Amino acid sequence: MPSVEIKKVESKKELKDFIEFHYDLYKGNPYDVPNLFSDELNTLSPNKNAAFDFCEAEYYLAYKEGKLVGRVAAIINHKANDKWGQMNVRFGWLDFIDDEEVLRALLKAVEDYGRQKGMQHVVGPLGFTDMDPEGMLIEGFDQLGTMPTIYNYPYYPQHIEHIGGFEVDNRYVEYKIAVPDTIPEKFAKIASMIESRYNLHVKKLTKKDVFEGGYGRKIFELINSTYKDLYGYSELSDRQIDQYINMYLKLADLNLITLVEDWNADKKLCGIGITIPSLSIALQKCHRGRLWPMGWWHLLRAIKCHKTEGVDLLLMGVLPEYRAKGTNALLFADLIPRCQAYGFKWGESQVEIESNENVQSQWEYLERTLHKRRNCYKKTITQ
């Protein structure tokens, strides 16, 4: 059987090949949602991605009989390792043909890189930070993917579990949630009660609030506070926050972003809900991840004209001391009518840690279906 050749990405052309491989492997797949080429290039480029302030990475391509058959990124997030007391090298951007030998060679390249850097474990799929897609799909292969998540073929987990050495390190779930015809009575009652009892109130943003009033930064500082104890999380740096303000908020429909403030504490920001129209179908129409010739039009229709049936619940967070007060009810009581007005029929929860009951309980008054599961895997590096 022909051996697999692994080549480290060392040129702009090879980085282009690295990105393009996904488009080739998933061409015509009705469930995969490819990222924009420009977004992938920015994320993978040290001079563009602020995460490289505390991360280092190498990218590898796999060839068999001279043909490109796989890719993987090896990433060390030093901030996360320091925080959690770990010595992990992450694998991400993993794609490969249905060939176990290719997967073995790719993950060996990651392991070898980690060993050279003194790491003790290989973990993944993970990106540079929690803002990147994470988790290998193990259920829901017949469900449409989303922009913030990974889609992969069913043979991915089959092969990684067969090659040995890897164990499940974390489990994720994702829900598809029906947009109700009316606000659930429970949400409405709780929202009204906590406004009067705790003096918590909804804040809707203007562009001036985001870019001049400091709310863009407040949002991601709250994300740091609410996500700090989640699996593998590393706090966003000031440069990353600036980057994500431009990435997420510059083109966002602010009607679909809801904040909650505590008016007893000088309008302290205590909860956020950032939602965006689903871009899945629009991204599938962007030829090989390009905005030209017509990709921009499909994305504009989804973002500005809401020509899509779904909404992605991109970032939801409530400070710990406000969760028991029912702050989520205020978020949903504001967002549900806006989703109804735009004609959205369903929402997608994005990845949630399976054991995080506090997060999953927020959907209990809504009709929901658990339609996807994911795993992160871990392997000890032998010295």
Verbal overview:
β4, α4 and β5 form a beta-alpha-beta unit. Strands 1, 2, 3, 4, 5, 6, 7, 8, 9, 10, 11, 12, 13 and 14 form a 14-stranded mixed sheet that branches. α6 crosses α13. The protein folds into two domains: 168 residues, Aminopeptidase, CATH 3.40.630; 165 residues, 3-Layer(aba) Sandwich (Aminopeptidase). It is an alpha+beta fold and 383 residues long. The model has no long low-confidence stretch (mean pLDDT 95). It has 14 helices and 14 strands.
Concise structural overview:
With 383 residues, the protein is α+β, with helices and mostly antiparallel strands. The chain has 14 helices and 14 strands.
What is this structure's SSE topology?
Blueprint: E1 5-8, H1 12-25, H2 37-44, E2 55-64, E3 67-77, H3 78-84, E4 88-96, H4 100-116, E5 121-124, E6 136-139, H5 155-162, E7 167-178, H6 185-198, E8 200-203, H7 207-211, H8 215-227, H9 238-249, E9 257-262, E10 268-277, H10 280-284, H11 295-303, E11 310-318, H12 320-323, H13 327-341, E12 346-348, E13 352-353, H14 357-360, E14 368-380
Parallel strand pairs: 4-5, 11-12
Antiparallel strand pairs: 1-2, 2-3, 3-4, 5-14, 6-14, 7-12, 7-13, 7-14, 8-9, 9-10, 10-11
Helix pairs in contact: 1-2, 6-13, 8-9
What features would you highlight for this structure?
2 domains, alpha+beta, Aminopeptidase, 383 residues, 14-stranded mixed β-sheet
